Amino acid sequence: MDFELRAAKAKWEKEQKEKKEKARKRLEQERKAREEAAKRQEAIEAAQRIRRIEETAAAIAASAQELEDLEAGDGIIFNRVFKALLVAGKGDKIRLPASSFEQLSSQSAIDKGPMFFEVSAVHHGSRPSTSSSAASHLEQHEINGESSKPRSTHAGVLEFTAEEGVVELPPHVWHNAGFSDPEYLSKNIHRGIPEARVRYVRLPKGTYAKLQPEGGDFADVFNHKAVLETELRQHASLTEGDLLTVHHGGVDYGLRVLELKPRTNVSVLETDLEVDVVGPGETTSSPQSRLSPLTLGKAESGLVEEGKYTYYRFTIDPQTEKGIEARTLDILVHLEVETKGGSDADADLYVAAHPLLYPTKHQHQWSSHDVGSKVICMTASPSTGESTKVVGAGGYSIGVFGFQGNTRFRLWVEARAAEARVSHGQRLGANAGDKEASSSASQLTQSDDGFSLCQNCKQLVPGRTLMLHEAYCRRHNFACQHPGCGVVLRKGDKDKHVHCSKCGLGLTSEELAKHMKVFHERLKCECGVELEMEAMVEHRASSCPKRLVSCRFCGDMVQAGAPADNVRDRLRDLTQHESECGARTADCDACGRAIMLKEMDIHIAAAHSGGQSMHRGDSLFTGSATPAATLPANEPLGARSGAVTNQPGANRVTDSSISIQVECPICSTKFGGADREQQLNSHLDDEHFKTQLPTPMDLDGLFSPAPTTSVPENSLRSLTVSCPICGMAVHSERDLSQHIDLVH
């Protein structure tokens, strides 16, 4: 009995224990579930708080950005992200899609004047973790939004022809917007096509800019003002910190924008901008100039590698120029090549006057290709006539070209008295004029009695010693029988004297190989033409479309380009650049009208000076033509009576030449009588120029108050200007241009 009770008790205790364990486990599970639910709820609430903070921050940022865009755009909002595409081009003009034009025009952006845009590269940063606290997220947002603000630049707009969703950026905008920065490339290159943020802004007109060259080469540029004007003409804006790349004479110069006024980003359109160029050594260290300075009379040593150039520069002062003009001084450029150890290294010498900074075998003014050391005399002989190269005050560049091997050399320039000039004879590369000049000094005149001509060397010798001289001369000397040569050599040098098979120039056998390579190996020009060196130099100086010319309108050294498209510009001998550059307008100093630069001479001759001497370089006219009497533009030609005066100080002429006839310059029809000029003008308008006269309705608004009497048609036609060449009166300046093209 006791046994059964104990067994029942043990069983009951065991069951109670199991029930308690199950109850404990169930309570533990419920507790864990409540804790997990609480954690999940806390996480959800935290995520909701973060999302609300993000939404609030985004709304605040969007509102601030909208206000900033509204203020920056002067009431116009345009802030979009495009795929950025690098395209070839100059300046800072970008291309946008057509939808951008619709968006801007709908806000009347066109009415506000030129459009400017802020362009920046879009940086794709990592998103913050959702488990971070709100404070840390706000701190991260502040860091990403403020401290790491992307670099930006400003640009104008060229066209609205880009593909939808794409903005086309020229190199200037691409690099300054930060797309070329190593940091940007390392973080975003794996994302494919980069993105650019483009925002419409309004920019004030710039008044001041400080630029600093990145290197020392820009100091060698001849005309900084003209170069910068040409470059800035292709830009619409400037931004502090931008790198402005100036292309001049085939070389790219980098200038950093250090300071701008009145703001850190300004417009350069239709404004007078004061520009200061800071020396590269004032604030930063920079590489030296490619043009090493030379002092007259002081030698410089150097090393030039084969196929490369080493450049120097020197200056001729006005005092030395006077000696050159008086032919008491010569400028000699010496190049002494070191030939120690039997080295066959050699270098060539090229010289050019500024603004050509870097003379080459394609483009130079003086050159020497002698084997070994060489000398260039830059003062041409009077016997060379029109081929004389003018040497005056100013800067000159020297290019030492490594013809063969690595060449060590000594270079110096000296101003030597003309009497001390040494004739070097016929040297490799000397032209015919130089040979005549060198030989004429040693010739004697046959007018002196007692002299006879040696039949071997063709020199005049005293008659009493002629037989002895000829016997000695024939035994020791050899006269070259090649046509046009006649040089007298020692018989021991006979085998060394050869002639070029192409040009017939007399040379030594050592010089022939170099002569053939230098003068007769065809060179390829940038424009694709292949010519020998002398023809190439002439081509680069006169007809190559890629030759550098000094523009008569902007003063910069630019590529000439193809012949001008306009026939009138071709008749004026304007290059393609000058035709485009001359199409810019400037205010006439006399009347204030906006006149094209290339038409300024015609305007001044017709409206003001009446054909007297003109300005702006090469003119279409000269002051030698006698102009006809002119009247103010608002006075009808038929109102003339009595005497009229040409120019101040001119003689008075009376109106007694009624019998004189005038002839149409196109069809030769003659007109006479007192109104012959009106008849000719009417004939030209009706038969040739087809000039459209204003209608009476158009004339109503031109005069205030309206005239009480009717205006005869002939009086309207007689508002004339006179041709500064022949004096014929024509209807307008446009007709004057056509008259000059057709007649003169």
UniProtKB/TrEMBL annotation:
InterPro entries: Rad18_UBZ4, TRAFD1-XIAF1_Znf, Ufd1-like, Ufd1-like_Nn, UFD1_N1, UFD1_N2, Znf_C2H2_type, Znf_RING/FYVE/PHD. Residues 721-744 form the C2H2-type domain. PROSITE patterns: ZINC_FINGER_C2H2_1 (PS00028), ZINC_FINGER_C2H2_2 (PS50157). GO terms for biological process: DNA repair; ERAD pathway; ubiquitin-dependent protein catabolic process. Keywords: DNA damage, DNA repair, Metal-binding, Ubl conjugation pathway, Zinc, Zinc-finger. GO terms for molecular function: DNA binding; polyubiquitin modification-dependent protein binding; zinc ion binding. Residues 127-136 have a biased composition (Low complexity). One of its GO terms (cellular component) is VCP-NPL4-UFD1 AAA ATPase complex. Residues 1-39, 122-152 are annotated as: Disordered. Belongs to the UFD1 family. This is C2H2-type domain-containing protein. It comes from Physcomitrium patens.
